[in-house]
Amino acid sequence: MSRTIHSLRTRTLFYLLLLLSAVALASYWSTSNLLHQSLGQYEERHAQEELERVNVALVTDAQALLGSTLDYGFWDDSYEYLQQPSLAYLDSNFTADSMRNLRVDFTVFLTTAGALHSAFEFSGEQREHLATDSSTLRAVYDGLATLPATLQQQGAYLLRWIDGMPVVLAYSPIRDTDRSQPQRGWLVMGRRLDTNALARLEQLVGTPFQLAPTTTSAPALPTAPGSLRVSRLLADSLGPSAVHLIIQRPPILDPQKRDGDLLLLGNSLLILLLAALAATLLLDRLILKRLSRFSHLAEQRRRNAEQPAVWPVQGDDELDQLALSLNELMAEVHTAHESLYQEARRDPLTGLGNRKFLSERLHLYQAMQRRQPGLTLTLYLIDLDDFKLINDCLGHEAGDALLNSLAQRLGGLLRASDTAVRMGGDEFVVLSLTDDTGPGSHALAQRLLEAVCQPLMFQDTQLAISASIGIALAGPGTSEDELLRNADIALYQAKRAGKSGFAIFSATMHTNVQERMRIEQRLRQALALGQLEVWFQPIVDGESGATRMVEALARWPVDGGYCPPDKFIPVAEEAGLIGELGLYIAQRAIQALPRLQQARPGLVLNINLSVKQLLQVNLVGQLCELVDAERLSRHSVHFELTESAFSESLEVLEEQVNALVAAGFQLHLDDFGTGYSSLQRLQHLPMSALKLDKSFTRLLDEGDERIVKVILSLGELLQLRVIAEGVETEQQRERLQILGCRLMQGYLFAKPMPEQQLLDWLPAPSSTAGSV
Ligand code: C2E
Ligand code: CA
Ligand code: CA
């Protein structure tokens, strides 16, 4: 970019210089031409003036000759001489001296009729007659003939070209001195303008000139190149004569022209230089330099877009206006950029930051942590409990309102160094950077939970919700993914521990979760491939040893052994697989029952049901179908429900339980004594048996019979049978029997086993038959 402007600068200056040079050249050329022209005109005018002077001199000279001729013509002696020619008159008046003085070369006397009277010239001191046929005489006759009558009376002079040279002929009529007598003839005096005569005249006027006959009006003389030549026709008494006066000479003003040219050239060059200098300075300072600065700033901004460029404004010329516009434009761009930047980091629903914002903040805080190692960076991953219910039951509008008010509450709770973002859905993150003085993570988590719990009125409905929080600490080197995953694991833990609580991530938590996830994944696979097995554990009459019931227990063959149900049943419950798993086990067990009943008629099958299963609406129907499909009496299938299932009074559970009973199934309360069910509630549950937990059975070994006794009497009171679990020793069996507990289950009798093994184990039907 700067290169372009540089070239613009040089180019502009170059063209400017070119233009100025052209102007200077043109001005030099035209002024020099004008100078030459006026000098030429001056020179020609000067030559014309000289020509005039020469002309005047020549005319004066000729008129002087005419004057002399008239003197001689109006004279009695001459008058006499024409009548009586006498040598004496000639000798006394026309001497060689007098003629030389008058510069007369020849003299002719004519009669009035124009005939020759006498004609002579001097050759040295000797007067000689002119030859009658000479061209001089012919010219004299011709001249007289051309003279008009008026001129004939007063005399005239003529210029003629005779024998290769100009000759002045002066005519005077011959009269007596008083002019009382008529004219007697003509006196003609001739002056040849030969080389000597011309040299004398030249000397007189001080200007060299030439004379030429009119017949050769083209210059007879060779013209030197550049030389000046002016000419005119010499006039005589008749007007223009037959002789050209020519002045020809080399121009005299050439040195002045040369000097003028040099001066002009110097001037032009000086002006050019000054103009170029001034233009360059002005143009450069006013425009080009500023343009260059503009471009420089633009270039700087292009290299570093973060740095705002401000174009300088000096006054209010066009460039200043341009700079102002650019500055305004840049400010607009900056604002737009800023709002785009904000927009890209904002959650549109709640106005909190989004995931991108979180990631930037995290990097920033981690950088601060690196500089100041005492800082603690904590991430709180907040997930609303059962938010889906609100969305499903009250609509998304209610859901959005809840999220919005929650966002506001979070915002109000946080300090400047805390960041709240919405990750999407019902998941929020608070990122908190604290030093020793900040609240501990427990305190903040508690406050966050309380903020979430505050109810909100939405269209006359009170919305209440809780949240679970997973907390993870970040070190300067923790990656964003790792941090979020840790918080997620803690959240998972918090949810498992019961909702509306928080958990702080730890390394063991991570291993547990990983293990759980591994189990979940493999369990899904095993379920899909039908790899789960059902084993059966007999429940016997402790007294007779007769098998009354069998409990179906799920078995998962893994790596040559079996994964215990205590491990995978909770995973299945959390992963939402329990419905499928429970139904599968129930189906396999129910399908096996007819075969078992063949070996042990009247045998009852106990199937475990998880609370999560009970929450499924169509459960009862499905179970009925399974039992009916095998043409079994519904009385031969009992369901075991753990006591803890009834710790919360959920209407759905009660309905389901009632539905099962209504369908003809009997129910056992499993693991009795470990939960917290009140006796009052127990009284209202439609149970047919209690299962005494194996932990109480074990107490019998230690001689502690109190709880067993209480439970047995409770069973008696509520008319419920009691099945003792975990009977492992003969002592336990004996004590139970003595205390009045008949039904027992435990390793003492049999461990859980596959169907075939059970069939082998069961004694022949005839010997063990009995009622349940
Ligand atoms: P549970 O319902 O209380 O089942 C009795 C557990 O006690 C069984 O453990 C059984 O093997 C064990 N047991 C029986 N006699 C003795 C004994 O003498 N001593 C000792 N120490 N233990 C004895 P298991 O099979 O490992 O099952 C554990 C739990 O897993 C079950 O406890 C039950 O709550 C759950 N479970 C098993 N299968 C299913 C199923 O298909 N569905 C559901 N929902 N839960 C199941
Ligand atoms: Ca059970
Ligand atoms: Ca049990």
TrEMBL record:
Record-linked PROSITE patterns? EAL, GGDEF, HAMP
A Gene Ontology cellular component where this protein is annotated is: membrane
Please report the stretch or stretches of sequence annotated as the GGDEF domain: 375-507
Gene3D superfamilies hit by this protein: 3.30.70.270, 6.10.340.10, EAL domain
Q: Where is the HAMP domain?
A: 285-338
Q: Which InterPro entries match?
A: CHASE4, Cyclic-di-GMP_PDE-like, EAL_dom, EAL_sf, GGDEF_dom, HAMP_dom, Nucleotide_cyclase, Rev_trsase/Diguanyl_cyclase
**Stretches assigned to the EAL domain:** 516-766
Gene Ontology MF annotations: cyclic-guanylate-specific phosphodiesterase activity
SUPFAM superfamilies on file: EAL domain-like, Nucleotide cyclase
An example GO biological process term is: signal transduction
| SMART domains hit by this protein | EAL, GGDEF
Note the PANTHER family from the entry.
CYCLIC DI-GMP PHOSPHODIESTERASE PDED-RELATED, CYCLIC DI-GMP PHOSPHODIESTERASE PDEF
Protein name, please? EAL domain-containing protein
Q: Can you name the source organism?
A: Pseudomonas cavernae
